[in-house]
Amino acid sequence: MCPSLRPPEPRQVPVGRYPLWDEALAAVNRDLAATVPEQRPLRLTVHPERADLDEQVYVALSDGEAHGNPLLPNETAAEALTAVADAAQETVSELLWRAWPVCTVHDLGMHPRDVDGRPSWWCAGGSRRGDPAHVRAAIGELATVHRPHRPNRKRRKGGTPH
């Protein structure tokens, strides 16, 4: 019997194997749930590319499909959070064909960035003068600033929306 020429299937990383990445992924999944509630949580997967290499860990959709580069070892929780957010954004954006996450002020895709030691979602700002780049929220806290579009919501007396 000849060996299969197909690469090995990706497998889920057991919770606890990479505690910093587990914690970071939980924060990123809070942001995903706040902004794309129909999407199932992301997960860490191993893609055993070559037997002589260490396992390659990726941030993947719930079905195990991933895109982009593997995660690299991190020394701090902040580095891990930024790396996982970046990998998650790559996977979501490329595989779901949509910008994620999107700034609700400018309708632009945001990017993870360390701002004063705090991993955050950063928006480049609007194209008009006086519409500068800004931090929208810390990674894991998009639920505090994300307001889903609700076209049929009722208005209070006086014409003010809820």
Explained architecture:
- By secondary structure, the chain is of the alpha+beta class.
- The chain has one domain (11-144).
- Helices cover 23% and strands 16% of the residues.
- It has helices spanning 19-35, 77-96; strands spanning 11-12, 43-46, 57-60, 111-115, 118-123, 134-138.
- The chain has a three-stranded antiparallel β-sheet with strand order 1-2-3. Strands 4-5-6 form a three-stranded antiparallel β-sheet, with helices on one face.
- Strand 4 (111-115) and strand 5 form a beta hairpin.
- The longest helix has 20 residues, at 77-96.
- The protein is globular, with a radius of gyration of 19 Å.
- The chain starts with 10 loop residues before the first strand and ends in a 24-residue tail after the last strand.
- 27% of the residues are buried.
- The model has no long low-confidence stretch (mean pLDDT 85).
By DSSP (H or I, 4+ residues per run), the number of helices equals 2
Count of domains: 1
Q: Percent of residues in beta strands?
A: 15-25%
The percent range for helix content is 10-25%
Total beta-strand segments: 6
- State the secondary-structure class: alpha+beta
- The strands making up the biggest β-sheet line up spatially as 1-2-3
Radius of gyration: 19 Å
Largest sheet features:
3 strands, antiparallel
Mean pLDDT across all amino acids: 85
Straight-line distance between termini? 67 Å
Low-confidence stretches: none
